[in-house]
Give the backbone structure.
Amino acid sequence: MSTSGSSAGPRKLRVATTSLAGCFGCHMSFLDIDEYLFDLLDRIEFDRSPLTDLKHCGPCDVGLIEGGVCNAENVHVLREFRKNCKTLVAVGACAINGGLPAQRNHLELGACLQEVYAFRDGLSGSGIPNDPELPLLIDQVHPIHEIVRVDYFLPGCPPSGAAFRAFLTDLIAGRTPRLDYPAIRYD
Amino acid sequence: MSGQFQLDGQAVPFEDGQTILQAARAAGRYIPHLCWHPDFPPHGSCKLCVVKVGGRHLSSCAAPAVEGIEVESDTAELRAERRALLQMLFVEGNHFCPSCEKSGHCQLQAQAYEHEMMSARFAYFYPPRPVDASHPDIVLDFNRCIFCELCVRASREVDGKNVFALSGRGIHKHLVVNAESGRLADTDFAADDLAANICPVGVILHKRQGFRVPIGERPYDARPISRVELAAGGREADE
Ligand code: SF4
Ligand code: SF4
Ligand code: FES
């Protein structure tokens, strides 16, 4: 993927995206900007993202983080993004408040795993998975601002395509992003 | 007796005995509030109605209107302070709006939208607050209580039942049900009690009613709570 903008026009903003403890719903909603994506691609290019399948993040202008932090790998990815992105954005309910995965926070983690892998009907009986490849779970799910500094928040579950569009338009124009009343939503 | 005071530089008339908030409302001016309810005496717990008079902070729901005072309300400073109060309410409870039946109808959420609360900023407490679904018609989701005591007061003073109380201090403060078992099913609570219909947030919910109103048509979907309330106030005055 080329990193140099074309000779004409302003340099493209380099944008990285990832989903931590999220459902990819925010990424799907991002794609809901439909044909505006073409305009956007004149102004931005993607670095690490599920859209490019790049596995690591280089220096970027903007990092969009979907999902909260539920395991050790999430912490590493989040720190990689913070280190490389000038502007880091928490996108969606899970990145902002832990969201659905954080609904386990009032349960003891061991009991939670047993409920899912040991006590349910119809299980193979192999118990709680402990493959060394699996990232270590954290006792509670946390929003990303509890781990790294976050510059902007884009709420919603997911934020609407219109909210993504308004937010990115402001960001590309060099303005502090600000959503109008109906675009600020937590559900 | 009556008189007038200045609210953000504009005159507001008042009758003797009115609070700053009541006089403002009667004049079609909005001051944000959460624990205040027109049919009950001021509770003074949420502080969202904070205003400044002569450089001092006052709860406008409780402070009497006084001739000639200059009241500040819609300032960047007070908006930021109100936002911080809302952020604290969010981290002290468990507010997962996407699964809350009150979403779109909730005053806490609507205030947060109007105050442009993009995140709760502080670290979340995630307090454990198991729900009580024992009652045939009502479910209690204690995760979302903001301790306004409207249900406590309505049940005790209007319904004559005394079903609810607050217990504990600080982060351990929580709503309890006045029954030996602590379960709502073991009280004489009924779905048409005032207390069952007064909670400004998503604690006291009617079963089999959730998500009836589609997203987009809920009270605070299109218009901020200040506009919804002023419109409703106008209607109330006509009735
Ligand atoms: S009570 Fe209000 S703020 Fe809390 S989860 Fe429900 S809708 Fe959201
Ligand atoms: S349950 Fe609702 S009405 Fe009762 S104190 Fe809590 S927030 Fe207020
Ligand atoms: S509305 Fe005045 S303190 Fe809550």
Notes: The CA atoms of residues 124 and 211 of chain B lie 27 Å apart.
